[in-house]
Amino acid sequence: MLISVIILFTIQEKIGVHSSVIAFGMGFLSILVIDPKNVEKHFGEIEWGTIFFFIGLFIITGALEDTGILKNLAMILSKNFGSTPKLFGMFLIIMSFVVSGFFDNIPFTATMIPVIKMLPSINSTFVNLNPYWWALSLGVCFGGNLTQIGASANIVAITMLLKYSKRSVSFKEYMKFSLIPSLISLIISIAYVEFRYF
After folding, report:
1. Which residues neighbour 85 within 8 Å (Cβ) at sequence distance 6 or greater?
2. Backbone angles phi, psi at 78, to 5 degrees
3. C-alpha dist (Å) from residue 189 to 43, 96, 182
4. How far is CA 157 from CA 39, 54, 82, 164, in A?
5. Phi-psi region of 124 (alpha: psi -120 to 50; beta: other; left: phi over 0)
6. What is the pLDDT of residues 163-180, one digit of tens each?
7. Which of 124, 135, 136, 155: disulfide with 93, CB 3.0–4.6 Å?
8. Which of 128, 31, 136, 53 is nearest to 94 (CA)?
9. CB-based contacts of 196, cutoff 8 Å, min separation 6
10. Helices H, strands E: what count in the chain?
């Protein structure tokens, strides 16, 4: 089954099946194969709250794209910070870091991908988009470490901690340990993008 999942993920674009369908389908199939008599028990162990939290975030992301808010965002960013590619790259990595620290970085990344793609059509100086892909990637990755809700892994880890150890971690307590390493990561990322691409 593991080999089947890997193969399906590899050829998902060719067969036209989304990765979420493969993951959920094989997960459900594994329950039926391994322990078909206790399906309800296994469904009870799923973190439904976390799943519906992400469903809501992706619905909001889709709405932002369909309503044209993303295009307006791209135009605002280009107008205010697009005078030089270097300035825009620095702004993008900082903005990605801050926003993804307080909003889950997966839907934020999904939101920003079409924004970056629109940049060349708005401003001719954005010919090479490679620096901006790196700025977005590094910003959201390290920004996701900033808070409990910054990354999917953080949410799942905090939920499991509460479920199995009955210990909760406050927002302030989490940031007490995450702030300094996250800022160091941000500074290194800015230096890398600026010196490597600009």
Report:
1. 125, 126, 128, 131, 198
2. -65, -40
3. 41, 12, 10
4. 24, 15, 38, 11
5. alpha
6. 788 778 888 888 888 999
7. 135
8. 136
9. 134
10. 11, 0
